Hints:
The protein has two domains: 2-122 and 261-269, Diaminopimelate Epimerase, Chain A, domain 1 (Roll), CATH 3.10.310; 126-253, Diaminopimelate Epimerase, Chain A, domain 1 (Roll). Helix content is 18%, strand content 47%. The chain has helices spanning 24-35, 73-87, 169-177, 215-228, and strands at 2-9, 12-18, 45-53, 56-63, 68-69, 94-99, 102-112, 115-121, 126-134, 139-147, 151-157, 187-195, 198-205, 209-211, 234-239, 242-247, 256-269. The radius of gyration is 18 Å and the shape is globular.
Amino acid sequence: MIEYAKAHACGNDFLIVESAALDKEQERALAVRLCARTTGVGADGVEFLRRTGPRSGTIRLRNADGGVAEISGNGTRCVAAWMAHAEGSKPGERFTLQTDAGARTCVLEAREGARMRLRAGMGVPGVQRASVSLDEDAVLVEGAIVATGNPHFVLRVEDESFAAYGMDWQTLGRLICFHPQFPAQTNVEFVHVRAPGEIAIRIFERGAGPTSSSGTGTCAAAAAAMRLYGCARVLPVHAPGGVQTVAWPEDGAEMELTGPAELIAVGQAFAGEPPA
């Protein structure tokens, strides 16, 4: 049996599995099976956690398709929430998690039972203007490539339908995600600037598709909005799953992401395929 915890951050849900005994293929297969919405537990991804000390550990994220992702801001926050619960932590305590994108520190700001608010360091983002050519229709999609520990393509849209270039955002997001320009695929964020101090987004996530929220996607959208669209350096970001706040004092400084994480359940899953 495999023990797991389930948590979500603004509807972006993850399973947390503490196991050092799984090899890479076992991790991949387990992630695909457990993340299935109708035949598994259901989740956007699995965070495999190995504790290295009090309030510290190493995590590896596998998306619902079994692929490895460098980092998830929401997933990292969910793991910190699980550790806070397991260790009886109080507001003000810090958690250090080593991800495939480097070490990230989360601070527990508040908790009420299984509901917590955490502030996470998200590294220093990189923002570069870019375009993607959709050859079939000779359409040039203007946007930005943003690095927040994993890859993102961010484009601005004019209204909150999030449609652009004659397509709904889900269709366009898929085309960009799997575009040959991104051989390892890319996350895609659509940004609507409501005001200089507020943006709304939609997310097509690599390995998962349309998602209600994404921590790194929120940061990527905010970084582009701050650098390219004249938005404030402390910015509420609205996604379907809820609001998170991004703070980036200046270029070259570390970006911080503040938002909720809530524990949903703990349970056990069969480690192998059931008999035919």
